[in-house]
Amino acid sequence: MTTLPAAESMGFGPLRIAFDGRVLRPRPWTEAQATWAAEILETAPPGAVLELCAGAGQIGLLAVLGSSRRLVCVDVNPAACEWARHNADAAGLGARVEVREGPMEDVLRDSERFALVVADPPWVPRARVGDYPEDPVVAIDGGDDGMDLAWLCVDVARSHLTPLGTLLLQLGTVEQVDALRARLHGDDDFVVTEVRWCDRGVLVRLDLT
Fold first, then answer.
1. How many C-alpha atoms does 202 have within 13 Å on its Cβ side?
2. Fewest Cβ atoms nearer than 10 Å: which of 15, 73, 140, 155?
3. pTM of the model
């Protein structure tokens, strides 16, 4: 197991997730995203799970905990990748979890396909990141409208999902969901099929037809 000086740890479902101030503190309410992902996996096509903007890895780890599926976690932050590896080992999942460091559009092979993509991208508009001084900027800065990384997650998922695969995307506001629907309007391949509102964010299911 990777040895890191854990500043803090917290429960996330049955898991114990370690992290420090270099990564975004796991939000307890995001357990809902992992739980929904696990439900989707019960009937999803065969294949591995991809977690984009993985942070400390808690959402993807909890999503696959009750299955035998492989998990690939991707994050651009080296500290997040360190903690994701540590937490995978601590959960007893290290043998089927791979963590890749770098831009999501660069670290996946063209031929790779996944049954489910889970994404928790930064969605805070850049002008408002100062409202959250306790959070690392890299983990929350979503660009001018908070959607830069969300759009990229959608594009990466579209390229790497298996037929009938699903993207489970976290956003921050109803307006962002509306922007997503507008951009995908008329798209015959990738459609929003369900939206769930949580305490501090919005979960959007998109299915590849």
1. 18
2. 155
3. 0.91
